[in-house]
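WARN retry 2 of 3 for item q-0093 after timeout on previous attempt; input resubmitted unchanged.
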Amino acid sequence: MSDGAPVGAGQRLLAALSYTYLLAMMTVIAAIVAAAMTMQYLYGELPCPLCLLQRAALFGVCFGIMLTFRHGYSPQNTGISLLFAILLLIVAERQTLLDIYPRPGHAYVGSAVFGLHMPVWSVIIALVLLITIAAKLAIVGGDRELEHVHIRSFPFLARIGTVVSLFVILLCLINLVSVILQCGLNECHTFGYQLLGGPTSASE
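OK item q-0093 returned
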């Protein structure tokens, strides 16, 4: 990346749009994870193992975006986000298929939002991520303009990107501590925080 290379107005505009697009994507993902964690702590809806994998996949998508913000454009960064979006789709689809047919002792974990449970929302989110990234690559092309125009060239976007990135990292750390409290070193469950000896909170 050569920050000092001369760039045209069109290239700078494309860079600004690309950074705005990536920033919006990460902000939406952060809001989704924050909402899920809020429901967990306020209503005692502990996430199941597959739910935790979906959160990890969402964090992975954000990780690819944060690498672009920090180090500039790289096809590998986009690839990281795409791979985690695919992982999200696979895990969410598996959980959705498991929950389609109700079985004794097995039901949806957590409350429905607008009539849909989180696994179904995760399928939709994963498809939207894959479609939007693919559409951008097909219509606009890659983000090679970012090789010459770092996000620091847009101070306002850079500040927002830093704040959202730190928020995502904070969510990731809180989620990590929560998983340790919930699962310890054993298989995860939805019956309470194992290390706190909590009461039954949900059933899978």
